[in-house]
Amino acid sequence: MRELAITILSSLLFFLILLFAFIGFQNNAKRLPFYHYPSGLIVNIGEENRHHWGNSVIQEDLENFDSITDFSNIESFRLRIKNHNGEVYEKDFKLITVRKTDVLNVFFSDLFLAFFSLAIAVYFYYSTRDALIFGFFFNFGLIILSNVFVLTFNNSIFLFVLTLYFGSFLQYHLIYRLRGKEINSKWLLPQVLISFIMAMIASQEKYDMILVERVVLVAHAITVLFGSINIIANIYEIIRSKPQEEALLKRVVLVSSIFLYVALPTSIIFFDGYPWFFVHRSLFITTYLLFILSFFYGTYRYTFVPSLVIFTPSIVTLILVSIILGTYIGSIFILDFILPIRYLKDRWVFNLIYLFLVTAYLIPLKLRVKELFDYWFFEQNPKLSAGINKITALLSSPLSMRKTILTINRTVKETVNVSNIIILIPGDQFASTDLKNINFVRISPQSEIWNYFKSTDRVTVTSHLEYGIGLRETLYNFLKGLNVQLAFPAYDSSSNKKNIQAMILIGEKLDKKYFSIGELKFINEVVKISGMLLENYSLLEDEIQKRKIVRDIQTASIVDNTLRLILPSEVKGIDYGYISKPAVGISGDYLDIIPVSQTKMIVLLGDVAGHGLGTGFLVSAIKGIVREQLRNGTSLEGLFREINSFFRARYKGNEFMTLLGGVFDSNENVFKYVNAGHLSLIEMRADGQIKLHSKTQRVLGILETDYHVQELKLLPGTKLFLYSDGITEAFSERDEIFGEETLIEFLHFNAEKTVKEIPTLLDAKMTNFRGNREQSDDITFIGLSFTPN
């Protein structure tokens, strides 16, 4: 309600200013019975002159008419008029007396359109705090207003050209804003300066109509260029993101509104003003009223922002623009009216000197303005200064990471009165550090949200993403779910590039007020300090990890001795070959070959979840359990039950293992085995026929289970193959999986090879398959061949 009241009051005030402006400018005087631009182009106002609409009065005749000072004895005036075909005709026009209220009546629709445009601009500002949309509609209203002044009083050329150029440059900013991107304020200064210079040229050379027309034509061309890019960019977004239902409708309406906006300049450039100056003026009013309404409908999902966030660089830029323009106008006034200097009569000399001075002193001036802002809005605030001093002291204090982060969080919340502060980091950072209860949130470094933060170096405002689609919708839901209003990037200062190592997420203000400039400066300084602390902790963790690696390597050498496979003596009728390659030095795969007698041999192949030093210890423990139970005469079923009981008692279901193990007997020509959740047993007969035995039982370590033996009768020349998932789940550089089918094809191809040769050949094939991609899991494979004893 407050925003609506302010909008109404601001619009009424603007209307009153318009009214007083007309009363002040307008005089009761005789004039031609039609309205025209200084170039002579007759506009479509007044039904009695409809057949003259779009034609142009010869410039010489206009100059003769404007030179008349006394109209007391003049009732008509003859003019030569050129139509759109280039033909010239003459006509006597009866002069009319125009009263002050007549202009308001004639241009009521134009004034209403300007008034409505300003109302939309004010509404956007007070309800969404979107300065760009406010500036766009406010500038649009000024274009219409200055156009009326040009038509009625033949003045305000400067304002008309200024707003025309600035409006064309705002189209450039809309290309980014309407696609959910932030606007870089560094482009604002040159755009304002170009608009100002072109307006100065047009106003000083207003009697050179050819030059003024060209200046205006260039502004229209820029509008058409950026408008066309804007339309294409939004159509591309529609095709790429494929919005549905209402979102699609809004996108289409938004594209249509931009098309309506560029319709007039397009017709002026390519169609000599058709149809705008040859049809009733209501078409112009209706078209641009539809533009305002459709733009409002199509963009409110992108621009409704419940908070105002003004960052110092933008304000500094605006101040610099004001200083430069102010000093330029003041200097011209002094030189031309107070201290007329003959050798500066040619304006280009002064412009060149002023340009040189601006170039030389722009950077020092910018730094000085920034220092003043920091002083008045930040350093002079005792609460903000005390907060930053407290946080700065943490850099040299010998506190733990947990206590430091908690202190920063508490200080920020108390100083700027926000609900929370969260540090968002990629999942691979501080991987071994316990970050519970200290407002850290991990996110996958490959996620689209983290990639979005990495690709932008600007502050992200949650409310700017509201009602977005695609990634913007995902990001909005993520930040809104954390009750976050601002997301600041924290950079790695040790790198020459701007590498984002964390995002500092700031919650919403508890008092529902806007962030002040000083508070934003405070948050920005906190982000810098947080980045330094994170960098220090990252270096510390790297050093700790290096020491852990050294310790692990030393321990691994001891463990490796306990895990090394002790090859059995020869067993009659059975031959074998194997490979065992760990992914990270210590294998999580368990391979054991144990002779029972001269004709019997036990083979076990299992896979403990994970890999590394921890699983290495587990494999070592299992090996000890197996050999102890076999010495005690435990059966194959009993062996699996004991291993299952060990896992359940020790790890309570948090660790598990798959295992395939069996007994070869060359006297009975049989292989008795148990499969506890492991991969299929592969049987390849002498004729090359392959059969998969995939029947399994429950994985070890989950629940109490009675394991049962399966029996496989063996024929002469039969080969059996056991393997771990490190083979079938290996990936190539192109993310192709090796798979079970590839393994079977390999065995078919090498059916004539011995079981001692096959493992080596398989290792070479997998190395070639992976290419430059590193091994991601432990690899174990064993082949056994059976010959009757």
TrEMBL record:
Residues of the PPM-type phosphatase domain: 571-786
Parts of the chain that traverse the membrane: 6-25, 103-126, 132-150, 157-175, 187-203, 215-236, 248-271, 283-303, 315-339, 348-365
Gene Ontology MF annotations: phosphatase activity
Pfam families associated with the record: SpoIIE
Keywords for the protein's UniProt record, in alphabetical order: Hydrolase, Membrane, Transmembrane, Transmembrane helix
Source domain of life: Bacteria
UniProt KW DNA-binding keyword: no
Keyword match Metal-binding: no
Record protein name field: Serine/threonine-protein phosphatase
